[in-house]
Amino acid sequence: MIKRESGRLGRWAMGCLGWRLEQRTEPRNQTAHRLAAIVVGVVIALIAVQLAIGDEDAFDRIYRGTVGSKRGWSNILDLAAPLLLTGLAAAVALKLRRWNVGVEGQFFMGAFAAVAIAFQIESMSGAPLLALMFAGAALCGAAWIAVPAIARAYLNVNEILTTLMLNFVAILFLAYVATGPWRNPQSQGSILATRDIPEQARLPGVEVAAVEFSSGLLLGIAVAVVLWLVFRSTTFGYMVRTVGGSEKAGSYAGINVRLLSVAVLLLSGGVAGVAGVAHMTGGDTNAYATSLSNNTGYLGIAVAVLAGGSFPVVVLMAGIIGAIISAGSALRLLDVGSELGSFGLTGFILLMAAIGEGLANYRLRRERPGQETLPPGDQASPAPAASGTGGSSGT
Amino acid sequence: MTSADSGSVPLAVQMRGIVKRFDDFVAVNDVDFDLRAGEVHALLGENGAGKTTLMNVLSGLLRPDRGHILLNGEPARIRAPRDALRRGIGMVHQHYRLVHGFTVAENIHLGWDASPTVLTPARIEERTRELSDRFHLEVDPAARIWQLSVGEQQRVAILRTLARGARILILDEPTAVLAPGETDQLFGMIRQLSSESGRTIVFISHKLEEALAISDRVTVLRGGRHMGTHAAEDCSPRMLSQEMVGRSIEFTRQREPVELGENALVAEALSTTDDRGLPALRDVDVTVRAGEIVGVAGVAGNGQRELSETLTGLRALTAGRIHVGGQDLSRARARDFLAAGVGHIPEDRYASGLVLTESIEHNAILRAFQHPPVRRGPLLVQGAARRFARMLAKTVGLSISDVSAPVRSLSGGNAQRLLTGRELNASAHVLVVVHPTRGLDVGAIEEVQQVLLRARATGVAILLISEDLNEVMRLSDRILVLYRGAIVGEFTDPEQFDLEEIGLLMGGALAAAS
């Protein structure tokens, strides 16, 4: 096997210090590396905040806006709930090495189905209405990915492009709905929204240890548990793992790979639809609006990738990203804009995580000089450590 | 041991005390290796003996952990293939690393310092033609690689290395994918390069006869250690095989006579297309009776893959019929074939036969997960799956304690053992076997072949598709020769299998079947 080696300059610089990057044959625990990368990212981001704002108050505000207060906690949890569901949606597709980049669009379409049901059926209320809204949202999210799913399975059309492009269609569709019969006469400016959804169609809040949050979070956790169980201990999950490992092995084992691929993407779209309605009916939002998503769909993909596609880790990562966005929002009260703060932070931390991902495949080794034996005549002058060619034997 | 008798001939290469580790695995352990200028030197050993690793060190692809290299008596540090080439050492790898969509001329000139700055097809084709004449290696400069046979591709790879000034040419398992006729051509080429242009040639192989036929000297490696270097005329296959595996192997085998049963697999007038939609099989008739091994000989790429895929439901027929035990499976899918008792040992065991990312347990139940006791309704019963995997591991003699270990941790031999055992377990009647011993070491080859013979004795009908002609001849009761998608010959008497005649048919020389 050929070892990939780091760049020449880097190798030289590290060689001077007597260190060497070496590729691992078996990668280490990925989750630990991702978490470490996030910690490094947060620390550097905090330093950047200090340099940019130079205000003693900034850290205090971040602290109080996140884990330092009950309101902060409830902010985090309300931000984490939709991220958790969109993260799960993307993770479902990743199990089959598919990229559902259309989580955002399915999120909107799920919310659309829910709002349509809430407006049209006025006779129902409470649990039955909510159940119907969620079922409709799941179906509508799945329907929104059906064409990409079938095109991928039967015509081998790249699902990244098709799902992504349908996001734009979904957003335009939203604009159409929000300016049509359900338009909120009070809405103004660039934000388009329908009128508020009726009170009986809202998810109840939950309060734990005086921290209030939407029950959407509990729903998300329940979905995570169910998905984890399904993928772990059903023949469906077994087939997904087989085909995800090798499509050829899947057909060899008698699995209908195309049908399975469609089913998994529909499931992914369905979960994304549920994310949309959970977000719309919980938390601070009250209507179907262009401001509904705040890129939750796209961030969900990042959450799924950071979690390595593992459902339990998605729960953890959704919480972390939720906290980071809260921290960004807390800075809004200062001069840094909310968008800028949260996206700057999130982007930076994702970058760190990506670097960590790459580095997880390497390890640092101390180079010891003079290991490579030299031809007899040359023995007097040992190889300098900086040469970088000497083998450091097993230490 | 090493050639102290080098005499007046200068040593072109001296490798001394070479050690190469991959983590804890010592691939090459304190090996000395010499090359005399102008000789053909066979480097012999089982898979995993360290042959390729040692030569990767010489050609600069790998750096040794210890040891040093002298070229013509001068110490040399070879850090990259580029360094090696500058000193006239070039290696032709087992996979030729050619760009399939490019022409021969483009491949020759790719990444070469001496390529002209302005590359026009006419110009590089002219240069390629000159090189082709100079080295007496006939190639068509304008042909694209995918249009060439494996033997022709090899010639391009060799020419590319020679063009870059290689005086020492390392050929890694060059005969592994060639037909007997192509092998003869290659040997002619090697002799010419060595005698006329004075090239030194290292011939890596695990085939004893070939090594003896072509080389002046032979070096044997076993388990990363140097076992001996001999003049070829002083060697016998038996003695070399003893050095290679540490014991002597049976070269002939008395096969038990087995009473043949019913026709288990009947395929009539099979036709199908390959992945590009071109005809791959034409009117192929195959019948295998219970207790019979039917061998299919042929050069790779003559329809073997398509034949095995149609007979296991992985590829649709364009015409023809398939019956298994009287059941019509002409339009059936893979799972129907499985249900009918057809097992399949596929050629690409790491892509089709096994899921590398998953555990031994996951792979063990690949054929059993849709049936009780492993399946209960929509659920996968973890306990039953584990028991099944342990049972299978025990049956095939897999010495592992933990079936949840990743399947990639198994050696090639163990992986094939698991796969073979699983398929035998799944296949009540018919087993379609493709290249079952490719890439395995001698011990594992022996074992897999024994397993197949035992299955035959219990009345399984086996279709053996292999590019190893010796294997086909040793195991089969009947041999069919596949050439360009059609059966061009049938040999029915195991006593009268004729290597030469089969080889001729494989190479496309049409002759009446015996």
Describe, in plain words, how this protein is organized in 3D.
The complex is a heterodimer of chains A (395) and B (514). Chain A has 395 residues and is mainly alpha-helical. In chain A, 45% of the residues are buried. Chain B has 514 residues and is an alpha/beta fold. Helix content of chain B is 32%, strand content 25%. Chain B has 17 helices and 22 strands. Chains A and B meet through helix 9 and helix 10 of A and strand 1, strand 4, helix 10, helix 11 and strand 18 of B.
What is the gist of this entry?
The complex is a heterodimer of chains A (about 400) and B (about 525). With about 400 residues, chain A is mainly alpha-helical. Chain A is about 65% helix and about 5% strand.
Protein topology:
The complex is a heterodimer of chains A (395) and B (514).
Chain A: H1 8-17, E1 19-23, H2 30-53, H3 56-65, H4 70-94, H5 103-120, H6 126-155, H7 159-179, E2 205-208, E3 211-214, H8 216-233, H9 235-245, H10 247-252, H11 257-281, H12 296-306, H13 311-330, H14 338-359, E4 362-366
Antiparallel strand pairs in A: 1-4, 2-3
Helix pairs in contact in A: 2-14, 3-13, 4-8, 4-11, 4-12, 4-13, 5-6, 5-7, 5-11, 5-12, 6-7, 6-11, 8-9, 8-11, 8-13, 9-11, 12-13, 13-14
Chain B: E1 11-22, E2 25-36, E3 40-44, H1 51-58, E4 66-71, E5 74-76, H2 81-86, E6 89-92, H3 104-109, H4 121-134, H5 150-163, E7 168-172, H6 180-195, E8 200-205, H7 208-214, E9 217-222, E10 225-231, H8 237-245, E11 263-273, E12 279-289, E13 293-297, H9 304-310, E14 319-324, E15 327-328, H10 334-339, E16 342-345, H11 349-353, H12 360-364, E17 375-376, E18 379-380, H13 382-395, H14 412-426, E19 430-434, H15 442-457, E20 461-465, H16 469-475, E21 478-483, E22 486-491, H17 499-506
Parallel strand pairs in B: 3-8, 3-9, 6-7, 7-8, 13-20, 13-21, 16-19, 19-20
Antiparallel strand pairs in B: 1-2, 1-4, 4-5, 9-10, 11-12, 11-14, 14-15, 17-18, 21-22
